[in-house]
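can u pls check wat happens w/ zinc ion
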Amino acid sequence: MEGVSLKGNGTWRDAICPFHPDTKPSLRVKIETGAFSCMACGAHGGGVVAFHMRLHKLNFKVAVMALGAWVGGVR
Ligand SMILES: [Zn+2]
């Protein structure tokens, strides 16, 4: 995921949280879905779109468009 390097094996990986000044990997990321949850600052979401929204403070549509996943619709 953007701005994050994942550590470990298995479904849930650890990463340095980009949402607060993290010094140890507090962010848990489920690689199958992109769901994430930070044990330290409480940032959480259900997938890569939510992650991107939170990281860049975007609304859902803008985040989806930025990820190149907006299909059809109004620009
Ligand atoms: Zn955090």
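Residues 16 and 22 are 6 Å apart (CA to CA).
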